[in-house]
Design goal:
GO terms for molecular function: hydrolase activity. This is Nickel pincer cofactor biosynthesis protein LarB. It comes from Candidatus Copromonas faecavium (nom. illeg.). By secondary structure, the protein is an alpha/beta fold. The chain has two domains: 112 residues, no CATH class; 127 residues, Rossmann fold. The protein is 37% helix and 16% strand. A five-stranded parallel beta sheet has the order 8-7-9-10-11. The protein has a four-stranded mixed beta sheet with strand order 3-4-6-5, with helices on both faces. Strand 10, helix 10 and strand 11 form a beta-alpha-beta unit.
């Protein structure tokens, strides 16, 4: 969409001949009538995703080289992205990405973009970050560039695990939700083998806006929480368990067959998917 078209649309909104909702719809449709992406050769960066879906593109680190990840990160920075999330990033590759980002980069076409469109909007520092650097969280295998946003979700997302062994998946979910602007409370090692541990946190369960229940073995935690809470429960089966757990399939089937209403299920070990969905729910405002 050309600048003249944007100005014309804004003038129509100001004159009352076009509603705000109609203008937003036209902007959302824009990438389907234009490029809507930056072609990096090895990747096509979706530059319109945040407007369409409410969150910018996330980088899946597995299967990509450090140079490819770094190239995508730099392109996102040049587009003004303040928080860049990289999932499934192993420690060695994270170090290589960090080294890549600290090197001077060649000036490309993206450098010529109008910087006035890239001013931060309400970002706050969660902790000191190196200039242009990568913050790495080894438990979750997540890398984050930039500053965490202000928490603008409606309520609190509770992330609960059956056992300590489920924490890597839980941290992937929790950090994803935090990077998307949510307040997160962690309840770890509260599985059904010692149900009193979960019962000790009933206030958190009852007041949560969304709950992510993460468990391996037989995956019973999701059904238990689903029977206690009045909010959506996102169940995440993990690959933790002995032989007949079939690397998470047993927990997956248990969660899919839960008799508790309001329980949905994501893929095995998919903490990112759970955190993203929980954030979408937590940003739905009551009418």
């Amino acid at each position: 969409m050309k600048m003249d078209d944007v100005k014309k649309m804004l003038e129509q909104v100001a004159a009352g001949t076009m509603s705000v909702e109609e203008a937003v719809l036209e902007l959302k449709k824009e990438p389907f009538s234009a490029a809507g992406f930056d072609d990096l050769g090895f990747a096509k960066l979706d530059t319109h995703r945040k407007l369409r879906q409410g969150a910018a593109e996330v980088i899946y680190g597995a299967g990509k080289t450090a140079e490819q990840i770094g190239g995508i990160v730099n392109a996102m920075k040049k587009r003004g992205q303040q928080v860049i999330l990289i999932t499934r990033l192993d420690p060695e590759k994270a170090e290589a990405v960090r080294d890549f980002l600290q090197k001077p980069q060649e000036t490309g076409a993206l450098e010529k973009m109008d910087r006035e469109d890239q001013k931060p909007e309400g970002a706050v520092r969660r902790e000191p970050a190196q200039e242009g650097g990568l913050r790495y969280f080894p438990d979750a295998k997540i890398g984050i560039c930039g500053e965490f946003p202000e928490k603008d979700g409606v309520g609190t997302i509770v992330v609960a695990t059956g056992g300590t062994s489920d924490i890597p998946v839980a941290e992937e979910a929790a950090l994803t939700a935090e990077a998307l602007g949510n307040q997160v409370e962690r309840l770890y090692d509260v599985g059904v083998a010692g149900l009193h541990r979960l019962m000790a946190h009933m206030d958190s369960i009852m007041s949560a806006r969304v709950i992510i229940a993460i468990a391996g073995m037989e995956g019973a935690l999701a059904s238990v929480i689903g029977g206690l809470a009045d909010c959506p429960v996102i169940a995440v089966p993990t690959s933790i368990g002995y032989g007949a757990s079939f690397h998470g399939v047993s927990a997956l089937l248990s969660m899919l067959n839960s008799c508790a209403s309001g329980v949905s299920v994501v893929n095995i070990d998919n903490g990112f998917g759970a955190g993203y969905l929980a954030s979408m729910i937590n940003h739905l405002h009551d009418a």
